[in-house]
Amino acid sequence: MYNNLEMVKDDKVNTAVGLDEVVGQFNVEAIRYLDADAHRLLGPILSETNGQSSLKCTLVKQGISRSIYRCQCQTDQTGIRVFYLKKFHSPTLIHRLQRLLRLSDSRNEMRFGEYLLQKGIPVPKVLARYCRNGSDWLIMEAIEPSVPADKWFEEQLAKGNYTAIRAANIALAKHIGRMHACGVIHRDPHCGNILIRLPSRDAAGEHRNDNADNNGGFEGLVIMDLHRMRYRRHLSRRSKAANLAQLYQDRRYWLSRTEQLRFLKHYLQASGAGGSLRGWVELIEMLARSHRRRLNAQRDRRIFKTNRYFAPISVSGYRGHVVLASKRYVPGSVAYHHVFTVEDWRKVLDNPESLFTGDDVEVVKDSASSLVVRRTLRLGDVNLRVFIKRARRKRFVRLFFDLFRRSRAFRAFYLGHALLGRHIHTALPLAAIERRRWGFLTDSILITEQVEGLHLNKFLNRYLKDSNNGEVSVNLPESARKRLAQQVLWQLGRLLRRLHEEKFAHRDLKASNVLVHWNGAMAQPPQLILVDLDGVKKVMRVTSRMQFRGLMRLNVSLLECPVVNHAGRLRMLLGYLRRPGVGRINFKPYWRVLERWSERKIRKQIASRQKKQKRQRRMNR
User: Fold this and answer.
1) In-domain check, residue 571
2) pTM above the 0.90 mark?
3) Which CATH number covers residue 549?
4) Domain count, the chain
5) How far apart are CA 126 and CA 222, in angstroms?
6) How confident is the model at residue 22 (pLDDT cuts 50, 70, 90)?
7) Fewer CB near the terminus (10 Å): N or C of the chain?
């Protein structure tokens, strides 16, 4: 029912404990029930105390503010019943003061749940709550089978099931519109707080609804986390637009502009709000940009702090930061599905020099700028294939520059997670450590996970290139080969566009620094992954020169791939230029400038290679 199950250790997830061990001692008479039916259902179960409760709870999610348990028990009326228990914590003084004033989270959730159900808005039914003596928890009905909306949207988008996406989009617009019309606003509206109902299955595992496959299993949606809701007698237009802007920020990667306008149209009809569609679009986009800047800044500050995703570490004279869990999905990643501890990392990093020695160590690069090896690390109970990079200083003057800036390992660690937070796929940086003496940087090491995939040119040559006897390297039909090339090259342009939209510049973006992850199914398009982030930097403004230099590097690197023709490189340019809401683009002026810049770059490369060849011949004489 709830997302982020990976945030809890497996031993805690699989262990079922009694109700008394979860909530402690409580006064049965202080429990507040929703109605008489809820009292008849849960009253006999909750009255069993002193370790005799038949309600067995299994932890599914744990955070600073609350913990979620899945509870299962045997009832006399309906047999086995499943509930969810939400236990609220008091992390701040404000929470404790609110609880003293009887403004508890469980009370808000039950009150808003009852109110919204009366208005016909689908929310989970809170059956019972308890708030006394520092304990605050509630029991709600289970919404099963269901899946979080963010995961469901990604799955349907990968399958190309746009009919189901449209149905869910319209349903969400109507529910949010009716909620705003009632004066209720959700302060944390994102797809993780929305559940998609799935059709139930029979004993054979088949959908009971015959149309389940056509609509992607969409049977409706349920709005969660009602304790974050607030009631206002009058909601201003700006308050509604700001709430929609938060929801837009979370779904802008999954919905086209047409679907976004369709959502807004149905929202206006359900909420009865006045104003033109164009005016609402401009206001929401302005507020969404402001919200996105604040959200990204908050996520970036979290990278070098202590939380459930990151932690500082100090071993053998080195200081750094490690990853405990990854919130963002990385294609082909193994570490994404596991949770680590600081002790797991301490065992691995206890002797940094041993990272570069061993039987399985493979030297990938050994140059004046860096040493890169590939090996397997045993992290907790997981074996991870990783790249370990030790930066080297080519110029002595940089010793003084490093006094006032982060090391290369720390910069790559920060940039990698900053890009992942902006939904740009990159190889997952796992750890970054450095050693300093009197402020001078003496060593820095970066550990990055090796993800499954092929370099861009190798991928195109494998799936698109014809061999001498006329056979294809991988047996694909001609239409599938054409579609695959279009998808990859279009996404390549979109990748560069996304970097520039998020104010990142890459001075070394080429085909060898882009991996393609694909499972071989035509229904799921390939995914591009950035590697080697040494050339990435955050800028205040992406100039036209930066834009054309990025396009020029990609265009020149694609010239090394013989299967990419003129039309393929043009598709890469169009993927960069076209944006939602923009009509036809006169691409020819951009193409002419790109061709001139590419020719100049090729001449420089040829001159540089000729100089190296002359120098080599002199040395051989």
Assistant:
1) yes
2) no
3) 1.10.510.10
4) 4
5) 13
6) confident
7) C
